[in-house]
Amino acid sequence: MALRNLHYTNMKQMNLAAIALLSMFLFSTVQVLGANSTANADKRAMVEKSYREASSHIKFIENKGQWPAHILYRADVPGAQMLATPEGMLVGKFDENSLAENAEWLEKQEQVQAGKIKASELGAEPVIRGHGWRYNFLGGTLATQNTIDPKGLQPDYYNYLMGDAKNHATNARNFNELIYRNVYSNIDVRYYTNANGDFENDIIVRPSGETSKIKLQIEGIDRLKLGGEGELIFNTTVGEFSIPAPISFLIDKEGKQTPIAVKYNLLENNVVAFIVPDYDKSQTLVIDPVVLRWATLVSGNGSSDAHFHAIDVDAAGNIYATGRYNGNLITVGAFQTTNSGTDLFISKYLEPATPGGTGTRVWQTYLGASGTDNPYALTLGLDGYLYIVGPQGGSLAKTYGSGVPAGSWSQRNTGEASFIIKVHPNGTGAAVRTIGPASGSWGLQLFDVRVLPTGGSNFDLVAVGRVTQRSSGANGDIPQATSPDGTNVTNTGHDNGYAIRISNDLNNIVWAKQFTSTGSNTDRFNICVIDNANNIIVGGLTNGSGGISYNNPSGQTSKNGSQDGWLMRLNSSNGNALWSRYFYSSSNASTSILCMETNRTKSQFVIGGTSNGLASVNITSGAYKTSYSGNTDFYVASLPINGSATTWGTYFGGNSTEVNMMGLNLDKNDDVYVLGYTWSKDIPAVDHPVQTNSYDGSNQDAIFFKLKSDGTSLLYSTYIGGTQNETDPIGQKGIKFSDCRIYLPITTYSSNFPLSQGTLTSTKSSGNSIGEPVLVSMANPPDLIGNSITSGANQTITCGGTPAPITASVPSFVIAGIQRGGTNQTNGTSGAYPSGVPVVTSYQWQLSIDSAATWQNIPGANGQNYSPPAVNKNGVTLYRRIINGDACNRASDTLAVVNIIVTPSVVTPTATSNGPVCIGSTLNLFANTPTSGVTYEWSGPNSFTSSQQNPTINNVTLAAAGTYYVTATSTGSGCKSYAGSVTVVVNSIPSAPTAGNNSPVCAGGTLNLTATGAPSASYAWSGPNSFSSTLQSPSIVGVTFAAGGTYTVSQVVDGCQSPTASTFVTITQIAAPTNTTATPNPICIGDNALFNTASQSGATYSWTGPAGFTSSIQNPTRTITNINMGGYYVVRKTVGGCISVPDSVL
Predict the structure, then answer these.
(1) Measured between alpha carbons, how far is 495 from 542 in angstroms, rounded to an integer?
(2) Cβ atoms 805, 864 nearer than 8 A
(3) Cα(199)–Cα(194) distance, rounded to whole angstroms?
(4) For residue 875, what pLDDT is reported?
(5) Cα separation, 849 vs 878, whole angstroms
(6) Which of 624, 722, 726, 1108 could form a disulfide with 702, with the two C-beta atoms 3.0–4.6 Å apart?
């Protein structure tokens, strides 16, 4: 096992150092003992090569029911198998000698089939031997699919269609690495394949992790021992295995790696511990810094309190925001330029391309009527339109401006209703539907809205909030109140949770639900998300004494504090509860769930809010802050989608009250960004803050911070504010992460709120008692300049060659200066930043061999420049350099991709065959290259593979037709040629032709044979009397009786001969007349001669004789008048059309 400190991408800045223990080559560094023939050595080399190529693309496939439940993930490569189990990684390795013997036996089997050797030479099929062992971390946490963190999602999926449809496992994802999280506290174990194709595992010890806890037991082996070089050695039934001695590195704050001498400590029962010397735990790991990039006032001259509540960003970087405003709003391209009270403002902005730029207010408009219209949440639909919800203050029209038509709904303007607004992204107009009671003074407030995908680009909307119910039953858009289990509940004058699903054209309410607890209560839904099953997770609060718990997956089943958090999961198709549970406060304490987002896989949801004390089950050991500070604190917690136990939970707060959490969002690493408002003055500032503390020490400030994805550490924290309050009482979605930027809507009463130099609107004209909205963009990381390749950008080498070193510039961050009170305005330049400009301190070079689909960190490649090793793989190998340690990188943070084009050093083999061939025949393939010392690899149709130079395929079928490829690989360098190819045609056997003849035929007549087949066919006839012909329809003239019998014919199409067809020929032959006489004989001139022949039924007769005699009478008479009438008289008989041979009389 080798130990080293890996500069792992997801590590963040911490107060303690981190080390990583790396165990290399779980089974690829193998020393196989025993007999070793040259043939077997070649086979083993082929097996090993096959393994390395396959393992370089290892796929850990998730278990979706296709395997036993204890297998969480599984990976298969030639010669080995890895099973991720709760206890650890189970490794199975097959004996390479027996694999080679089996490969040799299979080759012999092909030779038997080809008739090249006798079956008696084949022998019995060899048994493939194997051995399995497991890496079990004693005393560690058993893993589940929720605690294993898969990385490197691949684009393909696996389907297992076994038996009935109910047993099918479909769309199983696969990954190229697995991380067992928190096997011990702050200690992870990572399994992956490195750039060389070797299967490795890292033991990553994060700050606060105790290496003394690591006890690795290798189960399934007889005995571990230490070798002379400090390596581990163990025997298995498939040979002796060695794991190299450990190495380790510590990374300091500049990214420099310092070796640490770590050794194995071999304990009893095959248990390995680690001897780790003391190291500097004050050092920190480097992360991408977070800085204020751009900040502008939305307007600056309000006449009463404005609130800034919600923000969203599209893929093009357009920023959409909404809040409430009363005063002289700056309107641009507005469909409503004046207000009728406190109305919505809706805006579209573009931040500047470079720090210190102005930015663009694309459009900004009012929307509203008399009274106070208050937008609480905004989301972008799949159609690019904006959707906004909140309570209305007056009677809103159905349409404003143009471009968004209204449907057939009726507005609800009785009591307190809420609006759902659809706004055109170009700002030309909006449609408004108000939701609420049909009559009476019931109140409805919608606090959040989300997009619910329904297939393709189609979607509905889901909104949640609260209902103040004034009487029992249903009223307008508000249904009968029920408990989560569906039981009707009659209560009045209380707040209940409300959820609605509505079509994106606002015309069709799919369902609406009102949920409540029992007794006198206040229940509310504040926030919702869509999970990985397209169902809805809802969060809020309750002080109800019962009726909340339903299908409860946690132990938090009854009210614990004076007010607890409330979590529900709703079926998106009908709105019914799938489960419902409390989120416990501590005894007599109060908790509100205000914010919520899912992680990137939607397998976890992260909640946040305020509490003056959570139950201990919701604050986890090892979290950033495990103790309550007093007054009211923020908290953040992560839970699985099934709603069971809290995965991690932490407090965040200081010496006073945290007032309101405005928003919570996650980045690509699942790190958590939070915006809120606080009275506390002692919250630590981390990294490069805008302010290290409260600006004047006496008012509320905005607080913005970033937590690590597992809640263990604070990665960034800053106050943002001026000499007056920064505060807002409402906001659930007041933050948005997009493309390494975090967008914040902040409400400030300060005239000296920190804005970026050169910004759009920098002066607050309203008084200190009036809040103004400020749009803030934080960059993580900051903009980068001077980041370029200086040499080695694109190269072409032959396989086995070493690319030239890649050199790159030293980049730097650029940050806009800060201005307060409209002063220090310096357009287009950057000025002083309060905590200074961070410097680039570390790099990470990455490798891709799949056309940039995935990138893999190159261990130890953390310098400014990089010298690639020799490349033994044809194609394009890509390298790039990223800055610092975070996974969030914009285009400027990543160097242009370096293309190393690798051309073969082996000449492409020439491929030929004996094709075209017919079905059922033998296909012979041939390969040849002038390069010596090579092995061959064939692939082709019907999953054909072979390592023979000239393989054969016996008894071919149509599936064997197509193109066959062959490569040649150097046994010395391992370099492979380009593929040669040959296209093989496999022709079908034609059907037998139709055969016929003209028999019966009289002997001596002409026999005509006929065949009907394919137009392009040739023919082959054979028959009695040694007859043969290649004519389609041959004839035999003057047939004899020997020509009778069966004739066969086959047709040949494209070189393939059909089965034979047959036809039977009858030859008719008539015997000569018998008993032929002439009387008297001799005869005198003048006498009559009487001719006689035997009679035959059905016969006719024909006589011929001297002096022109003919007769058709059986027994004719002739008067002899002269001597010339003497001689031979011949008689023939005709039967059935056939004439006999003659008889004669003298």
Answers:
(1) 9
(2) no
(3) 7
(4) 78
(5) 6
(6) 726
Query: What pLDDT was estimated at residue 280?
Result: 57
Residue 916 preceded by cis peptide, ω within 30: yes
Give the helix, strand, coil percentages of the chain, each rounded to 5: 5, 45, 50
CA trace torsion 384, 385, 390, 391 (10° rounding): -170
- Lookup: tokens for 468: 């103040």
The answer to whether the beta carbons of residues 320 and 347 sit under 8 Å apart is yes
1096's CB contacts (< 8 A; 6+ apart) are: 1073, 1133, 1135
Backbone angles phi, psi at 50, to 5 degrees: -60, -40
Q: Name the DSSP class of 752.
A: T
Q: In 3-state terms, what secondary structure has residue 213?
A: helix
Q: What is the dihedral of CA 609, 613, 615, 618, to 10 degrees?
A: 30
Residues in CB range of 70: below 8 A, 6 or more apart = 85, 86
Q: What is the pLDDT of residue 1049?
A: 92
Region of residue 896 (phi > 0: left; psi between -120 and 50: alpha; otherwise: beta) = beta
Give the helix/strand (H/E) hosting 49.
helix 38-55
Q: How many residues does the chain have?
A: 1146
pLDDT of residue 284: 29
CATH topology of domain 783-903: Immunoglobulin-like (2.60.40)
Residues 987-1001, buried b or exposed e (16+ Cβ, 10 A)?
Answer: beebebbebbbebeb
Q: Which amino acid is residue 289, in one-letter code?
A: P
Could you please state the CATH topology (level 3) that the domain comprising 994-1068 is classified under: Immunoglobulin-like (2.60.40)
Backbone angles phi, psi at 891, to 5 degrees: -60, -35
Of 447, 449, 424, 446, nearest to 434 (Cα)? 446
Buried b (16+ CB within 10 A) or exposed e, 1024-1047: eeebebeebbbebeebeeebbeeb
Rounded to whole angstroms, the Cα distance separating 942 from 424 reads 54
- What integer pLDDT is reported at residue 832 of this predicted model? 59
The CA-atom distances, in angstroms, between 407 and each of 404, 430, 439, 478 are: 10, 12, 22, 20
Q: Is the pLDDT of residue 9 over 70?
A: no
Structure tokens at 155: 């684009």
Per-residue confidence band for 1040, with pLDDT thresholds at 50, 70 and 90: confident
Write down the mean pLDDT value for the chain: 85
Which positions ≥6 away from 231 have C-beta within 8 Å?
1, 242, 243, 244, 245
Q: With contact defined as beta carbons under 8 Å apart, do 541 and 522 qualify?
A: yes
φ and ψ at 1131, to 5 degrees? -125, 135
The secondary structure of 443-493 as a DSSP string is EEEEEEEEEEEEETTEEEEEEEEEEEESSSS-BTTB--EE-TTS-B----S
- Using DSSP's 3-state secondary structure scheme, residue 773 falls into strand
- Please name which of 612, 634, 615, 601 lies closest in space to residue 711, comparing C-alpha atoms: 634
d(CA 176, CA 178): 7
pLDDT in tens, 145-154: 788 988 878 8
Pairing of strands 980-984, 962-970: antiparallel
* Total Cβ atoms within 10 A of residue 1081: 12
Helix/strand number for the chain, H first, E second? 2, 89
Lowest mean pLDDT among 277-291, 416-430, 554-568, 746-760: 277-291
**0.85 exceeded by the pTM?**
no
Q: Is 710:650 a contact under the CB 8 Å cutoff? A: no
What is the reported pLDDT for 1098?
79
| Type and span of the H or E element at 102 | helix 96-113
| Domain residue extents for the chain | 19-275, 585-731, 783-903, 913-986, 994-1068, 1077-1145
CATH architecture, range 913-986: Sandwich (2.60)
* CATH 2.60.40.10 for domain 1077-1145: yes
- Rg of the chain in Å (alpha carbons): 46
pLDDT of residue 53: 45
Question: For residue 714, which phi and psi values (nearest 5 degrees)?
Answer: -95, 115
